[in-house]
Q: What sequence folds into this?
């Protein structure tokens, strides 16, 4: 029945409902949205949506070195984690908790660990080069969106809580 | 389930962004706008398909998109306010020969565009020959000449 209803004839003779007040509100909303578009573009360039940018990464200084990991990542998009062992910090081992493996697929590790050991907390990667590598890069692919919480430790030191927000 | 969610999410995102961008009609499109549209289509393709290039996934996505579109057309019919929000509303740009400067500015339509449409549609030569110019919700500018 609604389709048969006719719009009212305006005083100027035009049979049309232009809903001017609604249109005025919509124009205002549009302009607010454009400001939001600019903010999203600048924010994305800064890294708030992951995949590069200053804000997309964070460096955790933990016992035995530093772990540069994504603060914000995207599901199914390639990312990386860089582990820097402190000079002379003992055995070059990296422990990643089992929750890490639930959230990230490790595509490759440079350099390759000489041995990977499964332990109740997760997995320990042993890097036993002659003088020990100072930097290890893990190429990752986040698997599920959401907040990924995991623990990591270097050289058998105290494990630290790390987190990455994985966007869909 | 993933395909349906992806389809619904991409449909909603495109609907909101295109609506809020204020680009209301294809009649206002420049050749560069057309190129932008092709880039948008290419960009959304990846988000829609993910890493599943099977015919099943493509069929599910097509059915999902059409289903949402049909459902939305019913929602717009049952709830006219939603229809107004999604489709917009016609805006009178020239009323009884007088240009509505605010409407022209807010809709980002110039007098030159109205004159070009008047020439194309009605063969009119001057602004004073136009009685009404209306920015339609979905089909560009329409011009009613003075008799």
A:
């Amino acid at each position: 029945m609604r389709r048969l209803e006719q719009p009212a004839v305006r005083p100027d003779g035009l049979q049309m409902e232009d809903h001017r007040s609604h249109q005025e509100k919509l124009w205002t909303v549009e302009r607010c949205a454009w400001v939001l578009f600019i903010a999203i573009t600048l924010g994305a360039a800064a890294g708030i949506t992951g995949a590069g940018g200053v804000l997309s990464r964070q460096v955790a200084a933990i016992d035995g070195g530093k772990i540069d990991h994504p603060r914000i990542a995207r599901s199914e998009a390639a990312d990386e984690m860089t582990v820097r062992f402190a000079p002379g910090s003992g055995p070059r081992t990296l422990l990643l908790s089992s929750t890490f493996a639930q959230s990230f697929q490790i595509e490759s590790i440079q350099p390759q660990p000489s041995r990977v050991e499964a332990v109740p907390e997760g997995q320990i990667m042993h890097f036993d080069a002659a003088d020990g590598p100072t930097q290890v890069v893990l190429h990752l692919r986040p698997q599920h969106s959401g907040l990924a919480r995991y623990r990591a430790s270097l050289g058998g030191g105290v494990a630290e809580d790390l987190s990455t927000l994985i966007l869909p | 389930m993933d395909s349906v969610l992806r389809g619904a999410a991409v449909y909603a995102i495109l609907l909101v962004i295109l609506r809020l961008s204020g680009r209301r009609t294809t009649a206002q499109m420049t050749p560069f706008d057309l190129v932008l549209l092709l880039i948008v289509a290419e960009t959304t393709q990846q988000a829609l398909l993910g890493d599943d290039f099977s015919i099943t996934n493509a069929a599910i996505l097509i059915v999902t998109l059409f289903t949402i579109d049909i459902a939305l057309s019913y929602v717009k019919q049952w709830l006219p306010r939603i229809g107004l929000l999604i489709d917009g509303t016609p805006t009178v740009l020239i009323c009884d020969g007088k240009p509505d400067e605010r409407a022209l500015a807010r809709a980002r339509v110039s007098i030159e565009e109205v004159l070009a449409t008047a020439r194309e549609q009605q063969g009119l030569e001057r602004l004073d020959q136009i009685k009404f110019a209306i920015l339609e919700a979905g089909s560009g500018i329409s011009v009613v000449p003075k008799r």
